[in-house]
Amino acid sequence: FCGTSEFAVPVLERLAGNPAFEIQLVITQPDRPAGRKQELTASPVKVAAERLGLKIAQPEKLNKELTAISSQLTARPDYLVVASYGQLLSDEVLAWPKIKPVNVHPSLLPRWRGATPLNHTILGGDKEGGTTIQVMAKEMDAGPILAQETVTIDPRETYQSLHDRLAAISAPLLEKVLLTKPEPKPQSADGITICKKLSREDGVCSSESMTAEEIDRKVRGLNPWPGVTMDVQGVNLKILETDLSAHSKAIPVACTEGTLYVISVQEAGKKAMSGDEWQRGLKGRK
User: Fold this and answer.
1) What tens digit of pLDDT does each residue of 142-178 get?
2) Does the model's pTM come out above 0.90?
3) Is residue 116 over pLDDT 90?
4) H or E stretch at 122
5) Tell me, what DSSP letter sits at residue 113?
6) What is the mean pLDDT of residues 105-114?
7) Residue 104 in contact with residue 23, Cβ under 8 Å?
8) CA separation (Å) from 69 to 40, 62, 139?
9) Of the candidates 274, 153, 133, which has an alpha carbon nearest to the alpha carbon of residue 221?
10) How confident is the model over 17-49, as pLDDT tens digits?
């Protein structure tokens, strides 16, 4: 099992809880610096694997360390299951399992192939989203499909709410695939979209050049990472929550089209607060 982020934890837990499966090894990213103090922190998958009593490996580059990793196993694995691992895998790694390498991808492939499908489902204003279990191929997220499950995207959906919903349905869907072994079906050549990795620049917004709906999608799709920043009344703020309808605790911000209601903000070096609370504090400073 290869996984790193919180998304992969329910999948790992589901497989570990089924006696039909034996997880020989959990492969996850090395501990990384995190937080203000930049302390070395274990990945959510490592924490879960330790709790479940599973054997763990943390190669810096799995592609370069496959021989050493495989030597830790008592037998060649039937499956390599990958969920939110965070490394591109070589042909050699993909050929490692006896049956097939299987990936859990939180989009309705071929839409949103790539690293950030959850964010882009919201940024794209999609009405539907979902999760795909696919056979891994050399081309990213282009492998044949084993199963899919669709969900309706709520008009106020956030990255976190979609993340949690799709993680929850991915676990039983993968379990069913591994037990029933459905026939893979090639992906459609139509409707392919690609989503790139995100940077802080993707979260920089301006009410002078963007519509209220565009900024609202970014706020819902890019929190907590990379976050959204915007100039409000001459101050650069981190924008935590917005709405397109009037809100009692919000600052109304006129955009190129429509009004954005900024409900929650955080100024650099200060705590998060409601929009109107921040505005009152700003007036007190002037």
Assistant:
1) 999 999 999 999 999 999 999 999 999 999 999 999 9
2) yes
3) yes
4) helix 117-123
5) E
6) 98
7) no
8) 23, 8, 24
9) 153
10) 999 999 999 999 999 998 878 899 999 999 999
Cα angle for residues 62, 67, 71 (degrees, 5° grid): 115
pLDDT, one tens digit per residue, over 196-217 is 999 999 999 999 999 999 999 9
Do 11 and 170 touch, CB atoms closer than 8 A?
Answer: yes
Question: With 0-12 CB in 10 A as exposed, 13-18 as middle and 19+ as buried, what is 205?
Answer: buried
Beta bridge partners of 230: 205, 237
Q: What is the dihedral of CA 96, 98, 100, 103, to 10 degrees?
A: -60
Tell me the C-alpha to C-alpha distance, in Å, between residue 247 and each of 122, 243, 251: 22, 8, 8
**Assigned token pair, 236:** 């650069």
Compute the chain's Rg from CA coordinates.
21
Residue indicated by tokens 């090639």 = 186
The two tokens of residue 214 are 């565009």
Q: Which tokens hold the place of 61?
A: 């580059």
Q: Which helix (H) or strand (E) holds 49?
A: helix 44-52
Cα angle: 130, vertex 146, 138; to 5 degrees: 95
Q: What is the token pair recorded at 133? A: 């279990």
Q: Can you give the length of the chain in residues?
A: 286
Whether the bond between 101 and the residue before it is cis, its omega within 30 degrees of 0, is no
Asked if residue 31 lies in contact with residue 42, where contact means CB atoms within 8 angstroms, the answer is yes
Q: Is the pLDDT of residue 233 over 80?
A: yes
Q: DSSP state, 60?
A: S
Encoded tokens for 118: 């959850």
DSSP assigned state of 190: S
- Distance separating alpha carbons of residues 94 and 202, to the nearest angstrom: 32
Segment 222-245 shows an average pLDDT of: 96
- Token pair 């199963």 is found at 147
